[in-house]
Every structure is written in C-alpha cells, then in structure tokens.
TrEMBL record:
Gene Ontology biological process terms in this record: UDP-alpha-D-glucose metabolic process
Top-level taxon of origin: Eukaryota
Keywords from the UniProt entry: Nucleotidyltransferase, Transferase
Residue span, NAD-dependent epimerase/dehydratase domain: 305-344
Reaction(s) the record says it catalyses: alpha-D-glucose 1-phosphate + UTP + H(+) = UDP-alpha-D-glucose + diphosphate
NCBIfam families cross-referenced by the UniProt entry: PRK10122.1
EC number(s) from the headed UniProt entry: 2.7.7.9
Protein's organism: Timema californicum (California timema)
Name of the molecule in the record: UTP--glucose-1-phosphate uridylyltransferase
Residue stretches making up the Nucleotidyl transferase domain: 2-271
Coiled coil feature spans: none
GO molecular-function term, one example from the UniProt record: UTP:glucose-1-phosphate uridylyltransferase activity
Amino acid sequence: LKAVIPVAGLGMHMLPATKAIPKEMLPVVDKPMIQYIIDECVAAGIKEIVLVTHASKNAVENHFDTTYELEALLEARVKRQLLSEVQSICPPGVTIMNVRQAQPLGLGHSILCARPMIGDNPFVVVLPDVLLDDSTADHMRYNLAAMVARFEETGHSQVLAQHMPASDLSEYSVITTEEPIDHPGDISTITDFVEKPEDTAGLSSDLAAVGRYVLSADIWAELERTEPGAWGRIQLTDAIASLSKHKTVDVSLLTGHSFDCGRKLGYMQAFVSYGLRSNAQGRDFREAIQTILAKQQLKGAHMAILVTGGAGYIGSHTVLALLQRGDDVVVLDNLCNASREAINRVEKLA
C-alpha cells in the first residue's frame, strides 16, 4: 500500500506562525511535524509515500531531499550523530513523491490529485496535523499498523476514531457505528459519517475521526461523483459515508493518545509532552517547566506580598502570611508554620 499525505492546506488555525512557514514544518522539539508522520507510516510498513503539496510548501519537499552541502559540512566537522539524523530523515528503501494541488478544493480533491501516482489501487491516508503519541502505543503494532493488517485480511476500508467532548464535535468528522466501541482497539462498522456537523445537540455519537484511513479502490468512484459539500469543497468524509452504504467500512478505536497539532492548544500540548521525554533535553526541560509553574503559583492571579521577619502578627497565636495561592491568602496558626512557608522577606510580585 502507498500512503497519501495531504500537505497543501494553509494552516489557518495556526496563524500567524504559518503565514510563511508550512504548518507541517512547525517543530515538535527537534523534528518538524511531518517527520513524525513519515516515521509512523514507515513503522506501519509503508514504503511509498505521496505528498500532496502546494506552491507555498517547498520547505516540506526540501526537507526530504538530500542536502549535500550540509552533509559534507557535518562530515568535515565530525558531527557524526547529527549527520546520521539528517541522513535518516528519509529512511533507506522509502520513496517520497510529490504532486501539486493547484486549488484548495477540499481533502477529497487533494486525494484525487494523488490518483495518477496511486492508480486504481487501495491506499492509506494520513493527515499530517494529528500526531499519534508513540510513547502510548507502538506504531509497529497499533492504530495505523493494525488498520493495514485488518485491511489486508478483510478488504474492508478502515477508519480510526476516538471519543471527543460534545463541545468539540463540530470541529471534526463525526462517526456513527453499528455497535458501541469503548475500549482501545475495539472495532465496529460505520453507519453514518458527517463532516463537521453544525447541530451537535442531536448527535447520537461522540466518535470523531483521528485522521488515519485505509481505503479500498472503491473509494475512487465515490470521490469522482462526490459533490462539493461543506464550504464548497469535496470532502473525503462524504465519499466514505457514501461508500459505507454498499461496502463495509470498519471503525477502530484509537489506542494511546493523539495530539491535534492543527490547533494551537494541541500543538502546545504535543511540544511539552515530547519535550519532557527528550533523551537530550528532557530532564532540563522538566526542571524549567517546574520553575516556571512555581513562579506562576507564587504570583497567583494578581499579586502576593510576602511578609518580613518570618510572619505578620494578627494576635498572639495567629500569623498572617500573605502568600497567595490562586486568589486566597494563607492564614497560619503559628510562627513555626509561617516559617515553613518561607515568609522571610518583603517582596511584591506583579
């Protein structure tokens, strides 16, 4: 199977950061997001990958090209570890191809742009702004890898899903299944698939697509006859919904954790999570975060005043320690407890 990765989007949810930098090239610690996606595909056994790009996405294409000048410089300076990392960006035996999407006509149209490279064959679709945390699920066994294995066994198209808060469902493709799926790896069959529903109050499901699909060759005919839907675009969701009316489409529940890096909060969460477990910088990064949080806790919502001389006396048995926790002032019952709170100088914290 070949994988199609659509990278032609403009990354509007991440503006202004993505005004000049492709969203897929935003770093998560020391690698761009797209690199994690390629690594996931390779771990699932996929060796041929098609990037559907845009004229503004040269940086994505260049990232997977060979940079002889850089490699020669690293070799000359005996930077062997860095050289190895740069050379492994595109692993041996993996082919990465590029095709342009000239107009932003939707995800379904983006997939159609890759058809000359895929042919009338089944294929995988991986959305590049959703990172699956490989520390919570082995990419070689779960999620995409398991979907590929099930497709090869059954011939059924596969969709990955996860439960989402009701308040977020209007931002995702919502899936209704024949049977409930509640545990990681559970499988059911699609009965309905709706792209970013406006009315979420009447939804009977809280399952949202996670951006991993294995699609049979039947999807090509569905894409060809799919009319523009939401925002006047050809939606992959609509094509899969149509396919599910006459072919079995399986849905499996995500194993592990995902990050929606197409949105600022999800991207920030991913950066912190990956940063904390970085082999090179993880410990220092954790200490830096703890220091920042400790300072923020002292600051509280507005201002804290720490009282001089160990405490501020209210009476013979009560001590006022103006050490703010959130919006509260801590009242201590004796001088000993005040000392434990380290109230020993006057400081105004803005």
